[in-house]
From TrEMBL:
<dbReference type="Pfam" id="PF00805">
    <property type="entry name" value="Pentapeptide"/>
</dbReference>
<dbReference type="InterPro" id="IPR052949">
    <property type="entry name" value="PA_immunity-related"/>
</dbReference>
<protein>
    <recommendedName>
        <fullName>Pentapeptide repeat-containing protein</fullName>
    </recommendedName>
</protein>
<dbReference type="InterPro" id="IPR001646">
    <property type="entry name" value="5peptide_repeat"/>
</dbReference>
<dbReference type="Pfam" id="PF13599">
    <property type="entry name" value="Pentapeptide_4"/>
</dbReference>
């Protein structure tokens, strides 16, 4: 297994990497992980800026305290990641068609992200923040969004009867996202 600590990688194409790698406190800028099998890779306290992970396989990949900014993360199965110490945050990222099914990710930040068709079924998102994020077609079923912030989120459809929404924050402008399942006309 390769091991890197406190290193910065710029414009590196990791998609041909075959050996298992552990990265500790590393920074990645404009790197490619597209379609890569990240089986058993470990990312601990890493920062990713303008990286592309689209269609990567995250089976048993560890993402422990990792931050993604302006990254392309299309169609990723975060639910296949190693759940031990799983912690991620996203800013200005594209996460469309990804899955967080049953992920435990309290206090996760999704700031100004595209989350179209993302699966949050049975995810524990307590205290998470969806600031300025677009949630068209995102699925919330039996999800824990207690104390989560949706005040500036857009285009969500959350059924209060099948999700735990106690003390979640919504604005008057986006309150209709809680009522869509009732067929109520709001003007």
């Amino acid at each position: 297994m390769k091991y890197y600590q406190d290193e910065t990688f710029k414009n590196v194409d990791f998609s041909t990497e075959k050996e298992i790698v552990e990265f500790d406190n590393c920074s990645f800028q404009n790197c490619q992980f597209t379609g890569m099998k990240l089986l058993n890779f470990n990312f601990i306290e890493c920062e990713f800026h303008t990286c592309d992970f689209s269609a990567a396989n995250l089976s048993s990949c560890s993402l422990n305290d990792c931050n993604f900014e302006a990254c392309k993360l299309l169609g990723l199965r975060f639910d296949l990641c190693n759940p031990f110490l799983f912690q991620v945050n996203f800013k200005d990222c594209q996460l469309d068609f990804s899955s967080f099914y049953q992920c435990k990710m309290k206090k996760t930040n999704f700031e100004n992200c595209s989350l179209k068709e993302v699966d949050f079924t049975e995810a524990d998102l307590e205290g998470s923040n969806f600031h300025e994020s677009l949630l068209s077609g995102a699925v919330f079923e039996r999800s824990n969004i207690v104390k989560s912030n949706f005040t500036t989120a857009q285009n969500f459809n959350i059924n209060p009867e099948i999700n735990n929404i106690k003390a979640a924050h919504f604005s008057k402008e986006n309150l209709s996202g809680l009522l869509l399942n009732y067929g109520i006309m709001i003007k």
